[in-house]
Write a structure and sequence with these properties.
270 residues; Rossmann fold; 7-stranded mixed beta sheet; two-stranded antiparallel ribbon; methyltransferase activity; transferase; SAM-dependent_MTases_sf; methyltransferase
Length: 270
């Protein structure tokens, strides 16, 4: 694992570069539906972030920009940043195709401050499946603090780390150490958006950061946490024990003990 961990950026970049075109064509992302109605945001996200009209928003680890463009449609002045050139190229092309004003930059999240040349933002937005690809959450939080304008805020929506310690079949038995934060080898052929896809770059490296690690890093960077909300639902078949409800909402079966599957944090720059 030591060799893989030392190559985390190289491996993860190759992993994601290859999967961009797969994701663009996958039913999971429903790009036809997005083109007809460019809004991929979750209801609780828009409610918790609030009115973004006229505000400068940067979306870190934006993939090919669906959520970024969704904020632009709601009136934000958006910048999307991702380390994958194919993802940023696809995002820029999508913005042009849809006639949405947006800026997209290719850069590692840890280099975001230099990538935007010191510009600051009213909102730093980070969403599902982002933090597990980063080895150093304290450094990540420090970058966010530098990106925020005075009175600006971070909004983070993520998969809850506790949900990954349970068994896949029943979701009721603890099978993984919650406090083992990695690194761990991950990947494999295909992708969550298309498990049958043929892929070559199948090695990646992830970290499972505990909730306390994330909260402490944000506070340690000098941001004041306004809320931490835990949610008993998620947005894809994260575990086989989950059942689909309305739309793309997944929960454990009726009568089963509820556990947190996702969470959201808002923190402001004092």
């Amino acid at each position: 694992m030591g060799d893989l961990a030392g190559r985390w950026r190289e491996l993860n970049k190759a992993y994601w570069d290859e999967r961009v075109p797969i994701h663009l064509g996958a039913a999971f992302y429903d790009m036809e539906g997005f083109r007809a109605r460019p809004d991929s945001l979750k209801d609780f996200e828009t409610a918790e972030v609030g009115d973004v009209r006229g505000k400068r928003l940067i979306h870190l680890q934006c993939h090919f920009g669906r959520d970024t463009l969704s904020w632009a449609v709601r009136g934000a002045q958006v910048t999307g940043l991702d380390f994958s050139p194919p993802a940023i190229k696809a995002a820029s092309q999508l913005a042009t195709e849809l006639g949405i004003d947006a800026r997209f930059l290719t850069a590692d999240v840890y280099d975001a401050v230099s990538a935007v040349e010191g510009e600051t933002f009213d909102i730093v937005y980070v969403s599902f499946g982002a933090l597990n690809w980063l080895p150093d959450i304290s450094r990540w939080a420090s970058v966010i603090a530098e990106l925020l304008a005075p009175t600006g805020h971070l909004y983070l929506a993520e998969f809850h780390p506790f949900s990954f310690v349970l068994d896949d079949e029943t979701g009721s038995t603890v099978t993984h150490d919650y406090f083992d934060e990695g690194p761990e080898a991950s990947g494999g052929p295909g992708t969550y958006a298309d498990e049958a896809a043929t892929t070559e770059g199948n090695e990646s490296v992830e970290w499972r950061h505990s909730l306390s690690t994330v909260v402490s890093a944000i506070a340690g960077a000098g941001l004041r946490i306004q809320f931490l909300h835990e949610h008993d639902y998620t947005f894809y078949l994260q575990r086989r024990s989950l059942e689909r409800h309305d739309g793309d909402i997944y929960r454990h079966s009726e009568g089963a003990p509820r556990i947190p599957l996702t969470y959201s944090i808002r923190a402001e720059k004092a």
